[in-house]
Amino acid sequence: MTIARSRAWTICAPLNLALVGFVLFFAGLRLARPGTVFYYTEGPVLGSLAALESGGDLADLYPADGWLEPPVVLTLYPPAYFLAAAGLDSLAGSGGTFLGLRLVSATALLCILALLTLHTHLRRAPPAWILALTAAALVTPGVYRVVAGAQADALALLLTWVGITAALGTKGDRVRPGLFPVLAAAVAFFLAFFTKQSFVAAPAALVVTLILERRIGTGAKLTAGLATGALITVFLLNVTTSGGYLANTLGALTGTSGWANLASSLSESRPVQWLPIGAAALFVLGRRLRPGFPELYLLGSAMLHTTAMLKTGSSVNYLLEPTFALLLLAVIRWSPGAGSAGPGMTGAPGRARMDVALAVVFAVSLGLTASVASLREYPTMKAWAASAAEARVADFEGYPLVDASFFPAILERGGRPWLNDPFAFGALEEIGRWDPSRLVADLEARRIPFALTTVDLGSSPAPPGAGTRDLVMAYFWRSRPVWTALTESYTPSVSGPLTVWLPREDREP
Q1: How far apart are the first and last CA of the chain?
Q2: Close Cβ partners of 410 (under 8 Å, ≥ 6 residues apart)
Q3: Where are the beta strands (DSSP E) in 254-384?
Q4: Rounded distance, CA 474 to CA 103, Å?
Q5: Which stretch of 85-94, 208-217, 326-335 has the lowest confidence by average pLDDT?
Q6: What are the CA-CA distances from residue 346 to residues 143, 351, 352, 449 (Å)?
Q7: What was the pLDDT predicted at 24?
Q8: How many CA atoms lie within 13 A of 186 on its CB side?
């Protein structure tokens, strides 16, 4: 290691600690408040975990009743993430809160950073530039929103990186010789797929890389093993849940596609997300790219998740894997053995100091900007209407109809919400995949103790032709059957942004 490299690592060490501290800040904030929703999809995930823990088996996590019997649970993720969180809940006694779910995600993301640091150090990539790219990645919405969030993405990404490390090692850029590294990678990729189904770019890239390296037999064995194992496991899960597994994880994914969805997802990422994307252009301009695993992985994950963002309900979460794929590409292709020397690899002390200075300015400016934006985005959502109706809401029996952000409060009071994802069920109702007649009948009979929402239901249901793409979260509440049953049988009480609907008392149900 040259003097310049040693000095760069010494100066960058505090920056790396500050970067991890930035991650830990949000992780600690969320772990310290396990009853508070910080990201809107956390509520449905908690509802799914509650279904598993209350029933104790996968049939409760993936119900096969057509989403008719309350509580109505729609679980889009495979079981690995929920099983890991349930295990932590059993050890910590934290069932009904976000603690187990968030501990899994927080630990996974920290392990990803540890693997990134290990690859950077052993491959002798320029630490200042890798740090700058990592800073850009961590402070983008597609990443910091899932830092210690109740989301499966971080665990799936960690398992993917474990598979990549097993296949490539931590020094070279070719697949390691022998069958064992490929088998170890296959196991990790298999687990990643059953954490979140969209994490399939890495095994596909590995198969193509093996073919390019003329290890066609090994590539064929990997393809056959993963495909056979995945199909058998999906079949067993579907049989165990009487068809509920495929109905939840695949049958519900029926939203239409449109370029407007992709445009909205990219715009939500804000300009800061484009900094690591701009770094990819540096590779192209520097002609450092060549057909190999990191290029194939970045291309495959970008194409796969861009396609996902075309769907209704797309999210900046889809930018998580491509962003870290770019970091892997930077580490591998900016190492000395990857071709011409990259920035900071000349050994000149002056150049090393310039690299570190740029990294400091880059990381600090992004960190301050993201910190302000993040604090503004994370209000406390666990709240109840401060009105005369509060006493009647506090104690209830049955299944209340609430926005997903209020699920922790419902569970704390020993109840269960009717729906674990009103947006998803709004989309299903819109395209005729879910019949809300059971919910409507219970609203008309006033069997639901109360409804709680931050959505303004307005003076009329959703206009003809409007759907989830236009009204997003509001569509479920304003769909004609739900809106009509609720407004005719319940009375609203407004307190700030909250509205609690209580059964009318003007006539017997």
Answers
A1: 80
A2: 400, 402, 416, 417
A3: none
A4: 31
A5: 326-335
A6: 32, 8, 8, 70
A7: 72
A8: 19
